[in-house]
UniProtKB/TrEMBL annotation:
Protein's UniProt name: Phosphate transport system regulatory protein PhoU
Top-level division of the source organism's lineage: Bacteria
Species in which this protein is naturally found: Sphingomonas piscis
Amino acid sequence: MTDDPLLLRLGQELDYARRMLDAMGDDLCSDPAVVMRHETALQTVDIAGQMLGHIATVIRSSRREEAVELIGMGDLKARLTRRSLG
Protein backbone atom coordinates (compact mmCIF):
# COMPACT_ATOMS: atom_id res chain seq x y z
CA MET A 1 0.00 0.00 0.00
CA THR A 2 1.23 3.48 -0.82
CA ASP A 3 2.34 5.90 1.88
CA ASP A 4 0.93 8.86 -0.06
CA PRO A 5 -2.06 10.16 1.94
CA LEU A 6 -3.67 11.78 -1.10
CA LEU A 7 -3.58 8.54 -3.09
CA LEU A 8 -5.05 6.67 -0.12
CA ARG A 9 -7.88 9.23 0.13
CA LEU A 10 -8.51 9.06 -3.62
CA GLY A 11 -8.78 5.28 -3.35
CA GLN A 12 -11.23 5.65 -0.46
CA GLU A 13 -13.35 8.09 -2.46
CA LEU A 14 -13.46 5.74 -5.43
CA ASP A 15 -14.54 2.92 -3.10
CA TYR A 16 -17.23 5.20 -1.67
CA ALA A 17 -18.50 6.00 -5.17
CA ARG A 18 -18.52 2.25 -5.93
CA ARG A 19 -20.57 1.54 -2.81
CA MET A 20 -23.07 4.27 -3.78
CA LEU A 21 -23.45 2.74 -7.25
CA ASP A 22 -23.85 -0.73 -5.72
CA ALA A 23 -26.56 0.53 -3.36
CA MET A 24 -28.38 2.28 -6.20
CA GLY A 25 -28.17 -0.86 -8.35
CA ASP A 26 -29.49 -3.00 -5.49
CA ASP A 27 -32.42 -0.62 -5.00
CA LEU A 28 -33.27 -0.62 -8.70
CA CYS A 29 -32.91 -4.39 -8.98
CA SER A 30 -35.49 -4.89 -6.24
CA ASP A 31 -38.18 -3.86 -8.76
CA PRO A 32 -38.66 -6.57 -11.40
CA ALA A 33 -40.26 -4.11 -13.82
CA VAL A 34 -37.20 -1.84 -13.66
CA VAL A 35 -34.92 -4.82 -14.21
CA MET A 36 -36.87 -5.93 -17.27
CA ARG A 37 -36.88 -2.45 -18.79
CA HIS A 38 -33.31 -1.45 -17.90
CA GLU A 39 -31.31 -4.67 -17.70
CA THR A 40 -28.46 -3.41 -19.91
CA ALA A 41 -28.18 -0.11 -18.04
CA LEU A 42 -28.10 -1.93 -14.71
CA GLN A 43 -25.33 -4.19 -15.99
CA THR A 44 -23.40 -1.08 -17.06
CA VAL A 45 -23.76 0.37 -13.55
CA ASP A 46 -22.41 -2.89 -12.13
CA ILE A 47 -19.44 -2.89 -14.51
CA ALA A 48 -18.67 0.76 -13.67
CA GLY A 49 -18.67 -0.15 -9.98
CA GLN A 50 -16.26 -3.01 -10.58
CA MET A 51 -13.98 -0.69 -12.55
CA LEU A 52 -13.98 1.88 -9.74
CA GLY A 53 -13.00 -0.84 -7.26
CA HIS A 54 -10.10 -2.02 -9.40
CA ILE A 55 -8.88 1.52 -10.05
CA ALA A 56 -9.07 2.31 -6.32
CA THR A 57 -6.91 -0.73 -5.60
CA VAL A 58 -4.33 0.33 -8.19
CA ILE A 59 -4.21 3.91 -6.88
CA ARG A 60 -3.64 2.74 -3.29
CA SER A 61 -0.97 0.22 -4.26
CA SER A 62 2.73 0.88 -3.86
CA ARG A 63 3.25 -1.56 -6.75
CA ARG A 64 0.80 -0.21 -9.29
CA GLU A 65 2.01 -2.23 -12.29
CA GLU A 66 1.60 -5.45 -10.30
CA ALA A 67 -1.83 -4.32 -9.12
CA VAL A 68 -2.88 -3.74 -12.73
CA GLU A 69 -1.74 -7.26 -13.63
CA LEU A 70 -4.06 -8.66 -10.93
CA ILE A 71 -7.15 -7.01 -12.45
CA GLY A 72 -9.57 -9.67 -13.63
CA MET A 73 -11.44 -7.44 -16.06
CA GLY A 74 -9.61 -8.01 -19.35
CA ASP A 75 -10.91 -4.87 -21.06
CA LEU A 76 -9.89 -2.61 -18.19
CA LYS A 77 -6.48 -4.24 -17.88
CA ALA A 78 -5.93 -3.85 -21.63
CA ARG A 79 -6.81 -0.15 -21.52
CA LEU A 80 -4.50 0.44 -18.56
CA THR A 81 -1.58 -1.36 -20.18
CA ARG A 82 -1.89 -0.11 -23.78
CA ARG A 83 1.13 1.69 -25.19
CA SER A 84 -0.51 4.87 -26.49
CA LEU A 85 -2.64 7.19 -24.42
CA GLY A 86 -4.76 8.21 -27.41
